[in-house]
Amino acid sequence: MKRNASAVWRGDLKSGKGTISSASGVLQDTQYSFGTRFENGIGTNPEELIAAAHAGCFAMAFSAELGNAGITPESIQATATVSLENVPGKGWTVTASHLDVTAKVPGDEAKIRDIAAAAKAGCPISRLLNADITMDLKLE
User: CA dist 54 to 34, 75, 79, 124, Å?
Assistant: First the structure.
């Protein structure tokens, strides 16, 4: 299985602008720029898209791991916060992704926490990132 998206950049780093599109059409010439990445400009940026991918991937992985244990979650809400830092000797680097998770899941809390930890480690986007992956899990 392969998925793809594309980007076009025009101009220099600080004053240039780019667009991001996905094959599915969900993103279609979506604007990004230096301002949306390193300042507070309106538009998206690669790190926001990685955060969305990580949150979505984790929620599905957690649901799958729960299903493997015979547990059906009522709801899983995941928010990923990706950290981009200027690392000496490396430059701008995604150093961490933190998952804030609120889940309504029946069953033993300790078992559910173990399952969530396995999903955090095993989710394909977690494995893709060469970053510190952390999680706070709130069970309802």
Answer: 23, 17, 8, 9
Over residues 6-53, the pLDDT tens digits come to 999 999 999 999 999 999 999 999 999 999 999 888 889 999 999 999
Q: Looking at the structure, give the CATH architecture of the domain made up of residues 46-139.
A: 2-Layer Sandwich (3.30)
Beta bridge partners of 80: 99
CA dist 121 to 11, 14, 63, 117, Å?
A: 39, 36, 14, 6
Predicted TM-score (pTM) of this structure: 0.94
Rounded-to-integer distance, Cα 139 and Cα 108, Å: 11
pLDDT tens-digit series, residues 44-94: 999 999 999 999 999 999 999 999 999 999 999 999 999 999 999 999 999
Q: Which residue ranges does the chain devote to CATH 3.30.300.20?
A: 46-139
18 neighbors 9 (Cβ within 8 angstroms): yes
Query: Are 50 and 58 contacting, i.e. CB atoms less than 8 angstroms apart?
Result: no
Distance CA 18, CA 45 (A): 10
In whole angstroms, give the CA distance from residue 115 to residue 103: 12
